[in-house]
Structure formats: C-alpha cells, structure tokens
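Q: For a teaching handout, I want to show students what a protein-ligand complex looks like in token form. Below are the inputs, and the small molecule is 3-methyl-2-oxobutanoic acid. Please produce the holo structure.
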Amino acid sequence: MAGYLVDDQRKVTTHRLIQMKQEGKKIAMLTSYDYTTAQITDGAGVDVILVGDSASNVMAGNWTTLPITLDQMIYHAKAVVRAVKRALVICDMPFGTYQVNETEAVSNAIRIMKETHCDALKLEGGVEILPAVKKILDAGIPICGHLGLTPQAINKFGTYSVRAKEEAEANKLIADAHALEEAGCFAIVLEKIPAKLAERVASELTIPIIGIGAGGKCDGQVLVIADMLGMTQGFSPKFLRRYADLNTIMTDAIGHYVEDVKEGDFPNENEQY
Ligand code: KIV
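A: Here is the structure, written as tokens, with 3-methyl-2-oxobutanoic acid included.
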C-alpha cells in the first residue's frame, strides 16, 4: 500500500504513537524544514515530521548542528506547521537553548510552542538534562528524547561513529532511556547504536523508540529527508537507504533548462503572453 493511502487521516497525536507501539504498528518519521517539502512529506503518509536541527547542515551548509539559532528553528518550524494536516510535528530545541538552566529551557520551549504551533519538542541527552525535561513537561509540552549519537555533543565526542558499543556506555543509555520515560517523555530517538541495544530498550520501555542507524527492532524509523531522497552527496552511512536519486534528477533538469535558455528555446511561443 502506498504511504499516501494511509487510511487513518486523523491528526497524529503523542497518544496515538504510544497506541501504535501497543498495536505493533511501525512509526514512519522524516525530517522537513520548509513548507513545500512538508506538504509532500505529510501527503505521502509520514506519521511524524521532525523539524530537526539538521537544518543547520542541510539548509544552511554548516558542518555541525551547533550554529542554528532559536529564531532560525522557529522560522523552519512555522513553515512546516503551515503545511501539515496529519503528521505530528516535532521541533528540535537547538544547542544552547535548554542546557543553561531549567528556567531558560522552559521559557525557550514555551516560545517555540507559542510561535510555531508545533506539537512537541525534541531534546538531546539523558539524566544531565532531566531537570529541564521535567520543567518543560510540567508546562504541558510533550517531549521526545534523543540518546546515542547526539550531534549537539559532537565537540565532546569528536566523532560521528557508532555509540554505546561498550558496556558502560550501553548501561548509561539504558538508564537514561528509563529516566526519560519515567519523567514523562512520549518517545525517544536512538541514533547510531548497536541494533541489539536498541531492541532491548524498545522492549523494556512502553513509549515508542524511533531509530536512526539503530536496527529494525525499533518501534519506528527516522531519516533526514535530503539523505533518503539522494539530494546530499558525500554522506553514505551504512544505515542510510536512498529511495531516490534527486541529485541526478535535479542536475539533469536544471542542466536542460540552462541549455534551453542559452539556445533561445525557452520560452517558446506558447510560454509567453
Ligand atoms: O536533527 C535531526 O535531523 C535529527 C535526526 C537525525 C533524528 O535529530
């Protein structure tokens, strides 16, 4: 069945995602950062759209997710929310907006919710950020956690390689996941960790576990849209399945346009007033 033929057209809620896990139904999540792409993504049947801080890389060409600002994330999330009818929209809290203290975290979280009308927020980290997570949840804002490879901490770890391969880091990740569930998070993204560890976390927790490079036993999957559509180049991690080669399609189409303009073939008589 094509994704856009998803029969349940009701707006997806955090409660529905937990129900999907209980019913054994997989959750499909993708990133989007703009109106036009979000309209296509939503129409194609994706359950959750993440306005990821990967916008920093994909939309702005930065090397890391660190430089993107709160204002810029709000700009992207507003555009996405305007387009979406069915999917749950989650917005990433960017680096530096929730780590200083709980008061600053909750006031930034409230600003994102008020200005973008998105449905939920995502924060990277475990017990270190628990006070901020609790304060934001207390304000009635749903939170998705993010453990494993946490790109906002790239300068601390120095590499984007697979995380939690060693026992101590795996045990911390399991404890963090339980702490986030107990605090009241509605889902957790697990990025680039061994499949067996993700499977264990998914089986121990009642909230959905959404994997990226975390194997097939998670309750759902997420990918960066520009990667899965084959727009980005020079990024080919093992976990990435490319569903299209838009880079080639776009390059060919644009090259064709350039040729037509240069040769005076575009516009023709039917394409003018
Ligand atoms: O910012 C992002 O796109 C993400 C996904 C990789 C999960 O956090």
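A: Two things your students might notice: The longest strand covers residues 143-148. The pocket of 3-methyl-2-oxobutanoic acid is lined by residues 31, 50, 52-54, 92, 189, 191, 212, 222, 224 (CB under 6 Å).
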